[in-house]
Amino acid sequence: MKIKSISIFLLVIALFSVNVTGAAAYNSKYSPNVQDGGQQSLEWAKKHKYIVPNNPADEIFDTYGNDPGVGATRVNLTTYGWYGTPIVQDEKSGNFNSVKDIVLWVVLSVIKDTFGKIVIEVANYALSNIDVTQAATAKTMISYSFPTKQGQVWYNNIWNTLFESTNRNTFKHYYAVWWDKNKEVRQRTKDYTTSNGYQPVRVESAKHYNDHTYIQNQAYANYLQGKRYTSEEYYQN
User: Fold this and answer.
1) Per-residue pLDDT tens for 138-188?
2) Which DSSP string corresponds to 160-217?
3) pTM for the complete prediction?
4) Considering its fold, how many domains does the chain have in total?
5) What is the 3-state secondary structure (H, E, C) of 41-101?
6) Any bridge partners for residue 158, and if so which?
7) pLDDT (tens digit, 9 = 90+) per residue, 39-97?
8) CA dihedral angle for residue 63, residue 66, residue 69, residue 71, rounded to 10 degrees
9) The domain containing residue 104 runs over which residues?
């Protein structure tokens, strides 16, 4: 029976490896962010207005009223979404009891967690128990969102965005494979994202993101210089 269990586990790991390879191929085609830290995804999101709808942080941000007069300025908050699949950070497999204290990176060189905690959190999320005498797999991944303060100027009867200051928020995703006490193989991903009530595990800020006066002044200066558009990003600090 033990040999049979090991064989099943190896089959699961083999199938899982195929899925990881497929995800990597998807990333290489659609998300060059693995190499550039999300810059191309941000550029794509801005170009195509790939915006997170009904983002709670955006909804509570206060803006000015309607038709304030030509040349008026304001700061608007919007969030550009992540275009692509989560980026794998770390992965380990082994007998749960033997490897439960091994550390995995959640954000490479910045944030980490233990193998056991990752598997337990995912299993609890799946309303499942764990047979700790069996093998298991834990994998950490991340994705991004890009909260953006927009410096806008009123003309032509609409607000026009002439300056943007963009942060990068990092969210974690945990994936696990485990045996439950009914001797069944289980797998699940838990997404620690805003829509599920979680805050980002890391925030990287543009230089003037919290300086609303600077953002409005920059937008107005661009308005006076032919209504041009400029921006500052989190990676320019």
Assistant:
1) 999 999 999 999 999 999 999 999 999 999 999 999 999 999 999 999 999
2) EEEEEEE-EEEEEEEEEEEE-TTS-EEEEEEEE-GGGT---SEEE--TTTT-HHHHHH
3) 0.77
4) 1
5) HHHHHHHCCCECCCCHHHHCCCCCCCCCCCCCEEEEEEEECCCCCCEEEEEEEEEHHHHCC
6) 155
7) 888 888 888 878 887 676 665 455 555 678 999 999 999 999 998 899 999 999 999 99
8) 40
9) 2-236
